[in-house]
């Protein structure tokens, strides 16, 4: 149930319409409640505070008309600013960075605020009666409408400041890094079942490597594998006494009819009902039209790589932005360097149940640095910063077996500098920095 709710919540959280819709519905309830309150208490309010509650029907209608008109105008301005900002983020940084911008709570709230105040003003204005027999002015509701309009002035100023702040490179890459950091903290090590006991590991590895006996489970739709229900899959395999092998990484594109899982009877020689496998297992995965960082640390790294590549393209040629993205890449990969990666073989405490497919440390290093190095040909500043980022990662490594990967990346960066830089001065600078930092990855 929680997995299904998460599948429904994720697209709503990243939409620009859900929060404004909730706020409009809230404004409907607020308008109705205040009008009902005014029907019972407006007379006493006028007697106690005539300056606040003593407005006549004409004045109340004019005020609400002005509030509604101005809020609609400001709402249109807000949408225009939002579209302009989205276009700039897509063109200057990366289309994949739009997701962070669209799910920003301040942007969603501000858009909803102006639309909901407009709705509130219209509804309250429709309840005003100026006739002698049925004269009614919802004075409390009119006063609340005025306060909401004044709040809209502050909301507009803050929204403009927030948009300007959000478009800065440092803010954008810091958000991507913070989101990816949270996933690293949650996933490494991945608490997915239990590790096999050493005495049972050899038999489990031989069992998993055997090619016969595996039954395919194919995808019924096309899209990106966004996340899977790890506890649900482990419970399913335990219940059916099977072994399940994930055939795709989270973030991979899966086509219709493409292999998604492989399943076979467990080592205890159970005989499960194979007819139920596809229908049951597909409930435990989410396949969508785009990637998201949930269970997908590689996607967060890819976003920073995309920003760096965009900045290094001839059309943009922004070395400073590329360097900033590279700095945060070094920080993220450095956090991975400190982490214990999950074992591929997971058990229920007794038997092998799931074969996990995860990226290893060299794969993350290649993802973070390879494309940036290839795009940095002839750029001494980026190549020097690349060496510093590699040294930052190397300083965080706790497992000596990971050092050769970083040593190779540093050698590739140096070779790129020697082959593509145009002057001896630039090549000597990179060589000197390499010699200075080499103890980190030695």
Give a written overview of the molecule.
By secondary structure, this protein is α+β, with helices and mostly antiparallel strands. The protein has 3 domains: 2-167, no CATH class; 194-288, Aldehyde Oxidoreductase, domain 3 (Alpha-Beta Complex), CATH 3.90.1170.30; 297-341 and 360-441. The protein is 65% helix and 8% strand. It has 17 helices and 9 strands. A 6-stranded mixed sheet has the order 1-8-9-4-6-2, with helices on both faces. A 3-stranded antiparallel sheet has the order 5-3-7, with no helix packed on it. The chain is flat and about 90 Å long. The relative contact order is 0.09.
Short summary of the structure?
By secondary structure, this protein is an alpha+beta fold. It is built from 17 helices and 9 strands.
Observed structural traits:
alpha+beta; 442 residues; 3 domains; Aldehyde Oxidoreductase, domain 3; 3-stranded antiparallel sheet
By DSSP (H or I, 4+ residues per run), the number of helices equals: 17
* Main sheet characteristics: 6 strands, mixed
Please estimate the helix content. 55-70%
* Derived structural class: alpha+beta
How many domains?
Answer: 3
Q: Indicate the radius of gyration in whole angstroms.
A: 29 Å
| Approximate shape | flat
The average pLDDT score comes to 85
Strand content: 5-15%
Question: How do the strands line up in the largest sheet?
Answer: 1-8-9-4-6-2
SSE string, helix = H, strand = E?
HHHHHHHHEHEEHEEEHEHHEEHHHH
Uncertain runs are 43-52
The strand count comes to: 9
Span of the ends, CA to CA: 50 Å
């Amino acid at each position: 149930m929680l997995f299904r709710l998460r599948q429904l919540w994720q697209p709503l959280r990243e939409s620009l319409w859900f929060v404004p819709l909730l706020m409009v519905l809230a404004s409907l309830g607020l308008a109705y409640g205040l009008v009902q309150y005014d029907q019972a208490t407006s007379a006493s309010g006028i007697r106690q505070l005539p300056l606040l509650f003593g407005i006549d029907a004409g004045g109340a209608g004019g005020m609400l008309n002005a509030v509604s008109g101005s809020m609609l105008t400001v709402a249109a301005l807000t949408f225009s600013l939002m579209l302009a900002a989205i276009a700039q983020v897509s063109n200057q940084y990366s289309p994949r960075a739009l997701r962070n911008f669209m799910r920003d709570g301040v942007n969603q709230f501000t858009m909803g605020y102006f639309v909901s105040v407009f709705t509130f003003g219209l509804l309250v204005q429709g309840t005003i009666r100026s006739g002698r027999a049925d004269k009614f002015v919802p004075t409390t509701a009119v006063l609340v409408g005025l306060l909401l309009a004044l709040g809209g002035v502050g909301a507009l100023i803050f929204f403009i400041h927030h948009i300007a702040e959000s478009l800065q490179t440092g803010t954008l890459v810091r958000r991507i890094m913070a989101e990816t950091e949270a996933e690293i903290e949650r996933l490494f090590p991945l608490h997915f079942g239990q590790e096999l006991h050493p005495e049972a590991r050899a038999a489990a590895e031989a069992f998993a490597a055997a090619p016969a006996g595996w039954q395919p489970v194919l995808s019924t739709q096309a899209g990106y594998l966004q996340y899977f229900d790890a506890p649900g899959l482990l419970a399913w395999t335990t219940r059916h006494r099977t072994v399940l092998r994930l055939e795709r990484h989270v973030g991979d594109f899966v086509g219709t009819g493409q292999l998604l899982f492989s399943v076979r009877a467990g080592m205890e020689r159970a005989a499960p009902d194979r007819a139920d496998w596809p229908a049951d297992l597909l409930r435990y995965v989410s396949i969508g039209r785009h990637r998201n960082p949930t269970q997908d640390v590689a996607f967060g790294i890819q976003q920073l790589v995309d920003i760096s590549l965009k900045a290094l393209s001839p059309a943009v040629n922004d070395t400073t932005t590329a360097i900033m993205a590279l700095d945060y890449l070094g920080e993220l990969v450095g956090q991975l360097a400190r982490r214990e990666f999950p074992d591929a073989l997971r058990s229920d405490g007794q038997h092998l149940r799931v074969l996990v497919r995860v990226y290893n440390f060299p794969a993350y290093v290649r993802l973070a640095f390879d494309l940036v190095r290839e795009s940095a040909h002839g750029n001494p500043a980026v190549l020097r910063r690349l060496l510093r980022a590699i040294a930052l990662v190397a300083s965080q490594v706790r497992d000596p077996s990971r050092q050769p990967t970083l040593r190779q990346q540093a050698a590739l960066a140096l070779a790129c500098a020697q082959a593509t830089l145009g002057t001896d001065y630039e090549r000597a600078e990179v060589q000197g920095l390499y010699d200075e930092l080499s103890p980190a990855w030695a």
